[in-house]
């Protein structure tokens, strides 16, 4: 059991249709489009969802309550201190967080052997949190994910708990993390060709 | 390929020997010992490494440089503000971070079917970052992991960037996260029996 995805080609065709629609609507992070295209040009893989990594300022009623959270600012690139401050000034209620998230790519694989090949390539290129996300008779899904992350509480209910100088410092650290994970994405794009049959 | 672990029983015997030694040396987090014992009493699983989750204060030359990082304080439980401050006051050089990490359990499974059963049970109980960590002809490894996490920069090279009031607030948030993941561990211990043959 679970040796290969059933209806892989059908699944891939459906995912590619979804991707074309998302591209037309400008919903795909621009700087990973070429990586996604390279993965999708491989016979035994296709991308389902992906995020190129981001810095954000988020307001949420409680930690982890994504349903009711609001992004006050979100950037898939290095960010300027003043941009972050503009987002922070829009805060009114709930918990205010400064977040960094590493890139995440979900990739369907034809067989378990294909899944493991991709997993090992990604881990070797520094995507150390990569894993096999789900295994079912329907789908084999590899998650490519890196370690960069920040979760910094900034304030609550309109009150700021930290100084502007502090925010300036964490923005520097966040930008360093962005540079690091962008470098990993670039290397992945260079190396992914190795998985061509 | 990859349908089952080769030499599962041999691997399990070796892991159990290692666990007994770690237990004798007091190296296993006390509050997950009974959970580990329950998992290991199942025919098709064994635990390899595990952490019950923790709050810590860490000094590191650069973010992610674990090799040269030093724990100034580490607690596998809720923590008092004053304990955290004692650790913070020991800071001298490098970047100072306040961290929360969710529990992580690594569990060897006999077959891919066993691995997927455990994966789905864990995800259903709130361990949403659970995954299949590695798949090889040698071993099938499930990682059970939850979402709670904090990564907060506190200062650098002996200088503190935040106020004591701020540290008090993030300690509250961290303790809330600890209560949440301890609850998930408890539910896992109650439900794990379902995987008995």
UniProtKB/TrEMBL annotation, chains A, B:
**What's any GO biological process attached to this entry?**
tRNA methylation
Enzyme Commission number(s): 2.1.1.282
Matching InterPro entries: Taw3, tRNA_yW-synthesising, tRNA_yW-synthesising-like_sf
Q: What's the catalysed reaction?
A: 4-demethyl-7-[(3S)-3-amino-3-carboxypropyl]wyosine(37) in tRNA(Phe) + S-adenosyl-L-methionine = 7-[(3S)-3-amino-3-carboxypropyl]wyosine(37) in tRNA(Phe) + S-adenosyl-L-homocysteine + H(+)
What Gene Ontology terms describe what this protein does at the molecular function level?
Answer: tRNA methyltransferase activity
Residue span, tRNA wybutosine-synthesizing protein domain: 11-193
Keywords recorded for this protein, A-Z: Methyltransferase, S-adenosyl-L-methionine, Transferase, tRNA processing
At the top of the EC hierarchy, this enzyme's class is transferase
Q: Which Pfam families match?
A: TYW3
PANTHER family, from UniProt?
Answer: TRNA WYBUTOSINE-SYNTHESIZING PROTEIN 3
Give the protein family: Belongs to the TYW3 family.
What is the role of the protein in this entry? Answer: S-adenosyl-L-methionine-dependent methyltransferase that acts as a component of the wyosine derivatives biosynthesis pathway.
Recorded protein name is tRNA(Phe) 7-((3-amino-3-carboxypropyl)-4-demethylwyosine(37)-N(4))-methyltransferase
Q: Which organism is it from?
A: Thermococcus thioreducens
């Amino acid at each position: 059991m679970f040796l290969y995805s059933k209806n892989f080609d059908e699944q891939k065709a459906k995912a590619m249709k979804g991707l074309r629609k998302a591209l037309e609507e400008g919903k795909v992070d621009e700087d990973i489009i070429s990586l996604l295209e390279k993965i999708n040009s491989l016979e035994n893989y296709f991308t389902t969802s992906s995020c190129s990594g981001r810095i954000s300022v988020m307001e949420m009623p409680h930690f982890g309550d994504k349903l009711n959270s609001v992004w006050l600012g979100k950037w898939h690139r290095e960010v300027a201190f003043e941009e972050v401050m503009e987002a922070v000034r829009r805060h009114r209620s709930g918990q205010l967080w400064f977040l960094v998230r590493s890139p995440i790519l979900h990739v369907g694989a034809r067989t378990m052997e294909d899944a493991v090949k991709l997993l090992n390539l990604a881990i070797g290129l520094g995507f150390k949190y990569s894993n096999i996300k789900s295994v079912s008779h329907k789908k084999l899904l590899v998650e490519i994910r890196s370690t960069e992350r920040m979760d910094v509480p900034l304030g609550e209910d309109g009150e700021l708990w930290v100084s502007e100088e502090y925010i300036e410092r964490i923005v520097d650290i966040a930008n360093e993390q962005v540079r690091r994970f962008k470098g990993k994405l670039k290397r992945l794009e260079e190396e992914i060709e190795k998985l061509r049959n």
